């Protein structure tokens, strides 16, 4: 049986079950594992000796939390991450993840002027702006951020779904990012069927019971890796 691609509704149901008694995970745990997967995927494709400077772009939601975790791990891996927060999240968990990055002396920028200044010295972008709950249109300040990232022509690694894409319809408006690498979390979303770059699955945390219930048909992760490459 083939790997299942998820609608927004099913993706939300799985998240809820992961944090219910069926999964018994906390949000912190899921973010930690997701962020670690994304950091590992970036490191797999972009060697730190050639791509040392990573711009980690984080939205205000859980997707941004994954990005903050990834930034911390990238710092641990020997990269030099810079965090871009066009609109910081207000939740306590988000603030703690940001403090963890501050404690590692990871630089943060928060406006488009600083973004423009940072792009010339950036080697690769990690896109953790919008998650699978995104619904257009793209509003300020993100409507000016996405074109800057696209126009930079830098390699982009997107978390779960490229920012600006509809979770089920894909980049229908043509305004979303066009990443070179995608790290789908839990299972890929319906809207990324058209993605043609390097595609990883990450988030090695789905219990067999939930995998079977939702008929995910996940591939096996190799060894102790947190990611597995998806190939058509």
UniProtKB/TrEMBL annotation:
It catalyses: (6R)-NADPHX = (6S)-NADPHX; (6R)-NADHX = (6S)-NADHX. Pfam families: YjeF_N. GO terms for cellular component: mitochondrion. The keyword Isomerase applies. Its cofactor is K(+). GO terms for molecular function: metal ion binding; NAD(P)HX epimerase activity; nucleotide binding. Gene3D superfamilies: YjeF N-terminal domain (3.40.50.10260). Its EC number is 5.1.99.6. The keyword tRNA-binding does not apply. K(+) binds at residues 63, 127, 163. (6S)-NADPHX binds at residues 62-66, 131-137, 160. Its main location: cytoplasm. Binds 1 potassium ion per subunit. It is found in: Cytoplasm; Mitochondrion. PROSITE patterns: YJEF_N (PS51385). Coiled coil: none annotated. Catalyzes the epimerization of the S- and R-forms of NAD(P)HX, a damaged form of NAD(P)H that is a result of enzymatic or heat-dependent hydration. This is a prerequisite for the S-specific NAD(P)H-hydrate dehydratase to allow the repair of both epimers of NAD(P)HX. Belongs to the NnrE/AIBP family. This is NAD(P)H-hydrate epimerase. It comes from Gymnopus androsaceus JB14.
């Amino acid at each position: 049986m083939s790997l299942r691609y998820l609608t927004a509704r099913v993706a939300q149901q799985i998240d809820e079950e992961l944090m219910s008694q069926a999964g018994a995970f906390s949000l912190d745990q899921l973010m930690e594992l997701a962020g670690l997967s994304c950091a590992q995927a970036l490191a797999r494709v972009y060697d730190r000796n050639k791509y040392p400077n990573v711009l980690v772009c984080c939205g205000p939601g859980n997707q941004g939390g994954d990005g903050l975790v990834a930034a911390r791990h990238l710092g641990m891996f020997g990269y030099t991450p810079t965090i871009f927060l066009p609109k910081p999240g207000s939740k306590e968990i988000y603030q703690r993840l940001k403090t963890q990055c501050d404690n590692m002396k990871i630089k943060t920028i928060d406006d488009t002027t600083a973004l423009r200044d940072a792009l010339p010295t950036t080697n690769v972008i990690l896109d953790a702006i919008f998650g699978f709950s995104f619904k257009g249109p793209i509003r300020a300040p993100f409507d000016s951020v996405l074109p800057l990232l696209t126009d930079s022509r830098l390699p982009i690694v997107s978390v779960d779904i490229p920012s600006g894409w509809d979770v089920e319809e894909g980049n229908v408006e043509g305004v979303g990012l066009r990443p070179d690498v995608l790290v789908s979390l839990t299972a890929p979303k319906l809207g990324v069927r058209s993605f043609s770059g390097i595609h990883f699955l990450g988030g090695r945390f789905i219990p067999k019971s939930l995998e079977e219930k939702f008929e995910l048909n996940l591939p096996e992760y190799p060894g102790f890796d947190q990611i597995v490459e998806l190939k058509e």
